[in-house]
User: Which sequence fits this backbone?
């Protein structure tokens, strides 16, 4: 999609958002820049919400932001992903950045925590060190599971690794043998369920939080298991 066409689409999307959500938004602009992730290949920053300088004493009501969508980043992803949906991705980016602004004004850190969790999940996927509680900053589903982008995490508190694990998913129970050498905390990617999520389905086995958590966790176990009914 050409830059001019992308700019026109973003203007139309802004018109679909109720006007009160733009309170405190100085402008929504499209930049031609491509903003790659500093460490992760094939990851790009699609948009940002930048707080603007405030007058002294203006309070949170005076906070204004500028939202930027990076056309170059969208184009880079479109080259990598077959069937890339420009409109859907632009809508999700716009509303994500609007939520940043609204939470800053409300002094609510939820979205910043979610962004941190997304970074930690990338580290998990790449086999890099990560905080074993990061998924708790994901979006909580009605089922009680945690979602981070397309990945779903099922949290289980256990005193030790059981011989087998039980997973409940979409009303069905599944069983799998625990991998040899598994230890807590343990992240098990589940395969074999009916109607899986778009991303990973991950069972997290961990101890009840205690004093040791103040010092962080090392040696997080990761594995993959195939379940049966």
Assistant:
């Amino acid at each position: 999609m050409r830059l001019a066409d992308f700019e026109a689409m973003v203007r139309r999307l802004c018109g679909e958002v109720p006007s009160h959500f733009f309170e405190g938004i100085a402008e929504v602009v499209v930049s031609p820049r491509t903003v790659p992730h500093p460490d992760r290949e094939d990851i790009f920053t699609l948009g940002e919400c930048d707080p603007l300088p405030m007058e002294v004493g203006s309070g949170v009501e005076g906070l204004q932001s500028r939202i930027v969508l990076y056309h170059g980043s969208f184009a880079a992803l479109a080259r990598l992903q077959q069937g890339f949906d420009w409109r859907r991705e632009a809508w999700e980016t716009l509303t994500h950045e609007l939520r940043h602004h609204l939470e800053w004004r409300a002094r609510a850190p939820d979205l910043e925590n979610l962004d941190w969790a997304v970074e930690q999940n990338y580290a998990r996927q790449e086999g890099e060190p990560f905080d074993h509680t990061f998924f708790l900053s994901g979006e909580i589903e009605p089922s009680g599971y945690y979602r981070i982008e397309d990945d779903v995490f099922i949290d289980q508190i256990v005193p030790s690794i059981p011989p087998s694990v039980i997973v409940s998913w979409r009303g069905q129970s599944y069983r799998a043998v625990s991998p040899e050498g598994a230890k807590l905390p343990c992240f098990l990617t589940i395969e074999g369920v009916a109607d899986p999520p778009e991303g990973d389905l991950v069972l997290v086995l961990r101890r009840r939080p205690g004093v040791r958590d103040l010092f962080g966790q090392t040696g997080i176990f990761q594995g993959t298991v195939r379940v049966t009914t």
